[in-house]
Amino acid sequence: MVVSLAAYVLALFNPASLVSLLLGAYGVVVQLLPMLLGALFWRRSSRAGAFSGLAVGAAVTLYYQFAGGALFDWHPGFCGLAANMIVFIGVSLASKAVRAKSPAESLSS
């Protein structure tokens, strides 16, 4: 209750902080996209690649959000997404391939 009240008062007196809070949350949530798309459409994706990409992407996003500034003046969430995709693809290709039908193939047959 106290935290909610404090957040409400902060949003009333400084609306810019609410926008930055929402943009920061978006930057972390968008890290789920490569894992979701890889699980649905890429047979070579792996669990290790998905979770390592998620961890690296979230760490990069949080680092740039709190350290300030980002590569090429991009949004911190986009920097994290780029790192996430590179790690996800790299680890998935380096790990042992498991032959299984993707959910998209299962639905189409």
UniProtKB/TrEMBL annotation:
<keyword id="KW-0472">Membrane</keyword>
<feature type="transmembrane region" description="Helical">
    <location>
        <begin position="74"/>
        <end position="94"/>
    </location>
</feature>
<keyword id="KW-0812">Transmembrane</keyword>
<protein>
    <submittedName>
        <fullName>Pantothenate permease protein</fullName>
    </submittedName>
</protein>
<dbReference type="GO" id="GO:0022857">
    <property type="term" value="F:transmembrane transporter activity"/>
</dbReference>
<dbReference type="InterPro" id="IPR038377">
    <property type="entry name" value="Na/Glc_symporter_sf"/>
</dbReference>
<dbReference type="GO" id="GO:0016020">
    <property type="term" value="C:membrane"/>
</dbReference>
<feature type="transmembrane region" description="Helical">
    <location>
        <begin position="49"/>
        <end position="68"/>
    </location>
</feature>
<dbReference type="InterPro" id="IPR001734">
    <property type="entry name" value="Na/solute_symporter"/>
</dbReference>
<keyword id="KW-1133">Transmembrane helix</keyword>
<comment type="similarity">
    <text>Belongs to the sodium:solute symporter (SSF) (TC 2.A.21) family.</text>
</comment>
<feature type="transmembrane region" description="Helical">
    <location>
        <begin position="20"/>
        <end position="42"/>
    </location>
</feature>
